């Protein structure tokens, strides 16, 4: 066990931290954190729509969701390029790169999202045919376009063109240094989409389909749930993983929302809503720590764990477990890390089969209400009263998994306290 923990501490944790500190990945991760307000706005409407099902006379407010969460890819296209310039230390290009990325993203969608209508007089008009691509459906391509914009601006900035010029005014230098990379970006994407009629959306979706397919499978669900908890237990921000995982989760819930809107049934289980918002896989927070917190209150005899149980129970009820993870601690504590890892796997398996077999509704709309105590958030997210049953089933399972490990750790602390 000591050798394993040494490997975690000295090799795995620093290596993974280095990967997620990479400016290209960090730019995507930062963007995913900053779009949270738009997701929350969509969540409010999703909660409202639950009540609309029971009170049909309530007005339709879905347009709020359409122009907040429904513009997700458009917002991400700006954010990734903006934060990319910050991460790559090119502060002069932040706004320009962000706006270029946003408009270049729209250009990349041209064959899929819109068409040019030519009137009898020869007048050309631009007509949008499918707005879904600027929502979750276009998330993969928006990130890739933003990364392409980052590459162009980054390498152009390293040329330092006209920066030491005395004869050319500063504002003219700034114009030139913006125009050149912008023109190159528009030419490349425009030639591909307008001149060659290449549908980048279809191409990117085809390219990433294996990734999405794996992510939306049971093994993918288990891996994603486990990686979040693994990073967290190593003291690495689990949200760093969002740069890689979030597009899969967002694409899933967007597709579910479209299916529900068309009168169909949601089919994609692996979403942010399933992992976090239902508070089933992440009951009390990542690793299902709410049962642990309650066990600390009612079963532990050591002063440390009993005190931490009292301090952390408030946040735990609202599915916030940072105080518990770092205070118990779970981080780099083998006796509590192992059951936390097991919970992430067992929880994912139970939820997958409950939803895939029709014993619990699959979330049908964007919902980020995990700060509402469970099982209320579980019911609101799934719109299914069976959510209460599954909450208590999983609570019992997690409690059984936590119990022997916690008791052993409590005994160790109690012995130390007595000796002291």
From TrEMBL:
InterPro entries hit by this protein: PTS_EIIC, PTS_EIIC_3, PTS_IIC_cello, PTS_Sugar-EIIC/EIIB
GO biological process, one term: phosphoenolpyruvate-dependent sugar phosphotransferase system
UniProt entry tagged with the keyword Cell membrane: yes
Any one Pfam family match given in the protein's UniProt record, by short name: PTS_EIIC
Location within or outside the cell: Cell membrane
Keyword match DNA damage: no
Domain of life: Bacteria
Bilayer topology term: Multi-pass membrane protein
Any one GO molecular function term: protein-N(PI)-phosphohistidine-sugar phosphotransferase activity
Domain PTS EIIC type-3, chain residue ranges per copy: 8-405
Protein name: Permease IIC component
Source organism per UniProt: Faecalicoccus pleomorphus
